[in-house]
Amino acid sequence: MFLHGQPSTHVTWLPARRLLPEVDVLMPDRPGYGANPARPSDYPGNVEWLLRMLDDAGIERAVLAGHSWGGGIGLLAAARHPDRVAGLLLVASVGPRCLLWQDHPLAWPVLGDVLAFTALRLGSPIVRWQTYRELRRRVARPDLGEVAESLRSQFDRPVWRSFVREQRALLRQLPALNATLSEIDTPTIVLAGSSDSTIPPVTPRLLSTGIAGAQLRVVPGVGHILPLDAPSVVARSVLDLLARAGAARPA
Length: 251
Hints:
Layout: E1 2-3, H1 14-18, H2 43-56, E2 62-67, H3 69-80, E3 85-91, H4 111-122, H5 124-138, H6 144-155, H7 159-179, E4 188-193, H8 202-210, E5 215-219, H9 226-229, H10 231-244
Parallel strand pairs: 1-2, 2-3, 3-4, 4-5
């Protein structure tokens, strides 16, 4: 199950999905984003939604791959519901010491709303076009229709509200997420880009040392959007975790 970051949609994972043709993939839009009509939520709310998704699909256990903000969902799910998580892939994930100076004003009352509204509502035509242009360079041509529809759904709703709510949840709940690391015994791989300017390099190191048996894999020359810029590494890591869970053998 692929869990996208903020503000994003499931299309972040399209290149990796194409590299996993024999794997059953769940790739939903999270609450508050894309075509998902549910209201945005915090980390516990996203875990509850995740478990309902698995129940509705008749899936007892799954490998969870979380990008950025979505990595925190994987951390909490693996710690609180280990019977449902067969493996954990943390892709440029939030974690210890991940906050930058700009994360704080983005969560402030009033100012955070103004900043998010300006960028994601007033600036939505520019953001939408720039996002499509970047995705067009990275996804397969047959997936471009899915990309266009996803962006339409994303910017036809007040996605800025989703961003602000999740930003405030990140600052409020990050200490609790960090405290779960020692509780996780799920097979875990931590992926980091060597050129990531959003997540500091200390964060993936602390994630990999804080989770027993976790592997750290650093991808040279890649930034924060690993699912788009290094999909083969993401796909290989998913296969490795499935193999360790006894669910698949790497091709």
